[in-house]
Amino acid sequence: MIIPGLTGFIGPKAAARLANQIGVLGGQPAADEQRVEGPGIRLISSRGWALRQGEIHCAIVGNIDWLDKELANTQTKRGPAHALLSSYEAHGPDLLRVIGGRFSICVWDETNRTGVVACDRFGILPVFWAQTPDGDLLIGPTATVINQMMAEAPRLSDQGIFNYLHYHMVPAPDTVFHGVHKLMAAHALVAEGGKWRVTRYWEPDFRETADDSLSNASEEMLGLLSSSVARLADSTDTGAFLSGGLDSSTVAGLLARHLPHPTTYSIGFNADGYDEIAYARMASEHFQTDFRTYYVTPEDVLAELPRIAAAYDEPFGNSSALPAYFCARFAAEDGLKRLLAGDGGDELFAGNERYARQMVFERYGMLPDWVRTGLLEPLLFRALPENARLVGKARSYIEQANVTLPDRLQTYNFMNRLGSRQIVTPELLDGVDAGLPSRLDGELYHHPRNASRLNRMLYLDWHHTLADNDLRKVNRMCDLAGIEVEYPMLDDRLVEFSTRVSSTRKMPHNRLRDFYKRAVADFLPRQIIDKQKHGFGLPFGVWMAEHPGLQELAQDNLSRMRRRRYVRAEFIDEIIRRHRKQHAGYYGEFIWVLMMLELWLTAQGYEP
Questions:
Q1: Strand 338-340 vs strand 290-296: parallel, antiparallel, or unpaired?
Q2: Of 45, 67, 390, 401, whose CA is between 20 and 30 Å from 108?
Q3: Peptide bond into 204 cis (omega under 30)
Q4: What is the Cα–Cα distance from 584 to 577, expressed in whole angstroms?
């Protein structure tokens, strides 16, 4: 497995210290690597391009889409590295405003000691980094690479473990390791005079008054998405994920416009409420694709789960990683080189149920203060009996409505609902900033200027749901399977278009994906447009309730987790009891999160 990305160091002291790191930065170049080096700098571009011209070194990885025609022509004629060099000579660090697609880049001007290191607008190709005590910069595509380059292996971060338990992944800008960071999506490291600083280089301009006619807007959206698919479907060894939802069905259908009978891949489960093969098959028949399906079993989980947990360079608890891996592996075994994925549509065009739910709560805050605090709340919380069912529901509604966004989005978070003090040990809790996740959410939610509540939620999800979670999930599983993945929905032009669709058009009267559904009404089967969102969710909690092998796997890992200093032993007992007695699916999800943490720690050699 070769993970595409940039690896390197900038700084003469780092160069001296890392001279013997043969396994990381030395040795014979691989067939798909490009390298440049000079005094105090070495860059390796895996599956990419590198170039040195005088004292300027540059390297670039990805599927680059220059937003400047001259640079696009340079790339066509001379290659991406020459286009990157030209862009730096013309714009300096501002080159990031003319580059699109998925990429990670590095440019270093030794003479002026200026440079830029950046990842793309959604962090599809991530950049991890660290600075040595001498101020030299280390960069890499994974935290593992950074760890190998450092003179001393970094310690695990208690804050990183806490953040994982909260989010079920470790969000940027930090990692699970002390001193190792990752660039947030649309962020860059920029150097002036050899001093590096992190900066945001792009942000969306959400507009509420830019709506075109519905027919024109629909035509533009489908045209942009079709062009995006066409750019990525450059050979017959390209297929597509197909869950049967709106986005994967649209991408598969557009792929069928450009390739005759493309192969599409879907995952099924023999578990009520989880299997959506019927919708995927419906889309396949509609667009005449070669439909391939694989039914994941509990035995598959037992066989592959330790390997999947170890494939991530940080603990990662999204259970749909496993079906994503089997889908990608199936395609790789068929000889395909690339899969197109539908990720991003919900976050661009308002398709997640929580968006509509939050707007219901927001209506309470629109009532006059005298109605809320002078009439309803005294009546419901003091005057009426507690045991009345409708009173209980009304109280719950008001309690949630009185929590402001974005904190209300975390109402059902295990750490909030069950209580962090009930879950984590006092030793861990006393050594972390328990309010950090809330502040991370708040900074992202409030960042877009003049944005609606809906668009603020979308922007928050661009980072935490897409960059930190879904894209990381699919990228790493495709790497593990040995196949490339692309995301047509995240085309820069389509993203910009989505910012011109008003909130009232995206989700009028709380109707999710209303604009998108209207736009594809003549393209997708009606049953797919009307179906509820699902995806490749894994029925682990349901299976574990009945499968002895999964029960043993969970028990073994939870027993090891008991001996660590992170999660209270009493809580582990309680979560097992709740899984057995109350809701197997809901509580099984957190058992999965704990199990994946333990499997990752064990794979990394951290003994309890």
A1: unpaired
A2: 67
A3: no
A4: 10
Inform me whether the pLDDT recorded for 123 exceeds 90: yes
Do 182 and 167 touch, CB atoms closer than 8 A?
no
User: In which residue are the tokens 């736009």 written?
Assistant: 519
| Cα–Cα distance for residue pair 453/358, rounded to 1 Å | 9
Residues 6+ apart with CB under 8 A from 411: 400, 403, 417
Q: Which two tokens stand for residue 404?
A: 């402001």
- Residue 419 near residue 590, CB atoms below 8 Å: no
Residues 6+ apart with CB under 8 A from 607: none
Looking from the CA of 176 toward its CB, the CA atoms found within 13 Å total 22
Mention every residue, 6+ apart, whose C-beta is less than 8 A from residue 373.
Answer: none
Burial class (CB in 10 A: 0-12, 13-18, 19+), 386: exposed
| Structure tokens belonging to residue 535 | 């995806």
What's the pLDDT score for residue 139?
Answer: 96
Distances, alpha carbon 137 to alpha carbons 92, 181, 274, 410, 597, in Å? 19, 11, 46, 36, 29
Question: Is residue 406 scored above 80 in pLDDT?
Answer: yes
Q: Is 374 exposed, middle or buried (0-12, 13-18, 19+ CB in 10 A)?
A: exposed
**Tokens coding 479:** 């790497």
Q: How far is CA 177 from CA 124, 128, 313, 608, in A?
A: 21, 11, 10, 17
Determine the pLDDT at residue 27.
53
pTM above 0.90, yes or no: yes
Alpha helix locations (H) across 379-485?
Answer: 389-401, 414, 420-423, 426-430, 436-446, 453-461, 471-481
pLDDT at 23 over 50: no
Q: Which residues contact 522 (CB under 8 A, 6 or more apart)?
A: none
* Averaged confidence pLDDT in the chain: 92
Phi and psi torsions of 435, nearest 5°: -90, 0
Q: Are 126 and 182 in contact (CB under 8 A)?
A: yes
| Alpha-carbon span 471 to 474, nearest angstrom | 5
Distance from first CA to last CA of the chain, Å, rounded?
29
CA dist 328 and 336 (Å) reads: 9
Does residue 510 contact residue 357 with C-beta atoms inside 8 Å? Answer: no
Farthest CA pair distance, the chain: 80
608 three-class SS: coil
How far apart, in Å, are the Cα atoms of 514 and each of 246, 350, 503?
12, 8, 10
Q: Cα–Cα distance between 179 and 566 in angstroms, integer?
A: 20
Go through the chain and tell me how many residues it has.
Answer: 608
pLDDT digits over 315-371, tens only? 999 999 999 999 999 999 999 999 999 999 999 999 999 999 999 999 999 999 999
Helices (H), 264-297: 277-287
